[in-house]
């Protein structure tokens, strides 16, 4: 039982490049979330999903897109990366609105 | 605007000593309050979840308290160990998908 996994662990992008972060969970959770964590700030919700095929905007969605084609996977896309998107990205999943389980994070640097 | 304020920002304690972390929130409506532990380079891990009717909850050497009237919570660490060195994050739920995260308190335990 791997819990929540994220791919990749680290990535360096140049401004304007695109990439996709993959999150996978094996707990059969309906809810999945993408957060970003910046120094001195609390985690902020980018997008979330309450089930396969559904997504919704969180607190800071601009510059990001998501897809939930399979229940166990939640993808976060950056179409044209900007230095302001340098951050650590965490994926989480939960059974309804209960305790969230977090992945190990992806450290992204945009130069 | 919903806010979660944590204090102190950081603290250093000697192994075996106790410490208490504070969390004040202005989230409304209130559903539950959670404490997470985040080791360096890892995702947050849930320690406790307390609803409105609970004023204390323990998880091993961690004890959380909640005063819903004053909108304050504390996390007490008893007989600290080196493995307690981490960031401790207070999170408040309004009952919907969105959680309000504090910036965290960084605890360093020294031998």
Structure description:
The complex is a heterodimer of chains A (111) and B (111). By secondary structure, chain A is an all-beta fold. Helices cover 0% and strands 53% of the residues of chain A. In chain A, the strands form 2 sheets. In chain A, strands 2, 4, 5, 6, 9, 10 and 11 form a 7-stranded mixed β-sheet that branches. In chain A, strands 1-3-8-7 form a 4-stranded antiparallel β-sheet, with no helix packed on it. The model of chain A has no long low-confidence stretch (mean pLDDT 95). Chain B has no helices and 11 strands. Chain B has strands at residues 4-7, 10-14, 19-25, 32-38, 45-51, 56-59, 62-67, 72-77, 86-93, 99-101, 105-110. In chain B, strands 2, 4, 5, 9, 10 and 11 form a 6-stranded mixed β-sheet that branches. Chain A binds chain B through residues 4, 31, 33, 40-45, 48, 50, 56, 58-59, 90, 92, 97, 99-105, and chain B through 4, 31, 34, 41-46, 49, 89, 93, 95-104.
Task: Give the topology.
The complex is a heterodimer of chains A (111) and B (111).
Chain A (H helix, E strand, L loop, with lengths): L3 E4 L2 E4 L5 E7 L5 E7 L6 E8 L2 E4 L7 E3 L5 E6 L8 E8 L5 E3 L3 E5 L1
Parallel strand pairs in A: 2-11
Antiparallel strand pairs in A: 1-3, 3-8, 4-5, 4-9, 5-6, 7-8, 9-10, 9-11
Chain B lengths: L3 E4 L2 E5 L4 E7 L6 E7 L6 E7 L4 E4 L2 E6 L4 E6 L8 E8 L5 E3 L3 E6 L1
Parallel strand pairs in B: 2-11
Antiparallel strand pairs in B: 1-3, 3-8, 4-5, 4-9, 6-7, 7-8, 9-10, 9-11
Number of helices of chain B: 0
Count of individual beta strands of chain A = 11
Number of strands of chain B: 11
- Calculate the mean pLDDT score of chain B and round it: 94
Largest sheet of chain A: 7 strands, mixed
* Structural class determined from secondary elements of chain B: mainly beta
Report the portion of residues of chain A in β strands: over 45%
Give the SSE string of chain B: EEEEEEEEEEE
Strand count, sense and barrel status of the largest sheet of chain B are: 6 strands, mixed
Which pair of chains has the greatest number of interface residues, and how are they split between the two chains?
A-B, 24 and 22 residues
Mean pLDDT of chain A equals 95
Principal-axis shape of chain B equals globular
Anisotropy-based shape of chain A: globular
Strand content of chain B: over 45%
Question: Helical element count of chain A?
Answer: 0
Q: How much helix is in the residues of chain B?
A: under 10%
Unreliable spans of chain B: none
What's the alpha carbon Rg of chain B, rounded to whole Å? 13 Å
Structural class determined from secondary elements of chain A: mainly beta
Order of helices and strands of chain A: EEEEEEEEEEE
Pick out the low-confidence regions of chain A.
Answer: none
């Amino acid at each position: 039982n791997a819990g929540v996994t994220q791919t990749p662990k680290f990535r360096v992008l140049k401004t304007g490049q695109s990439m996709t972060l993959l999150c996978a969970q094996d707990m059969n959770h309906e809810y999945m979330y993408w957060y970003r964590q910046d120094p001195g700030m609390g985690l902020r919700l980018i997008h979330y999903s309450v089930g396969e095929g559904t997504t919704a905007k969180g607190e800071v969605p601009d510059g990001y897109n998501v897809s939930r084609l399979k229940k166990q996977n939640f993808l976060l896309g950056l179409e044209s990366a900007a230095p302001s998107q340098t951050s650590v990205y965490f994926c989480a999943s939960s059974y309804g609105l209960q305790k969230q389980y977090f992945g190990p994070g992806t450290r992204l640097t945009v130069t | 605007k919903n806010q979660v304020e944590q204090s102190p920002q950081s603290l250093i304690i000697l192994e075996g000593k106790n410490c208490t972390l504070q969390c004040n929130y202005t989230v409304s409506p209130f559903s539950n309050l959670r404490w997470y532990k985040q080791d360096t380079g890892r995702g947050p891990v849930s320690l406790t979840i307390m609803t409105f009717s609970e004023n204390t909850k323990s998880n091993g050497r961690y004890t959380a308290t909640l005063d819903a009237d004053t909108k304050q919570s504390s996390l007490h660490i008893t007989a600290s160990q080196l493995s307690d060195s981490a960031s401790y994050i207070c999170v408040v739920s309004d009952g919907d998908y969105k959680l309000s995260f504090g910036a965290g308190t960084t605890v360093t335990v020294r031998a």
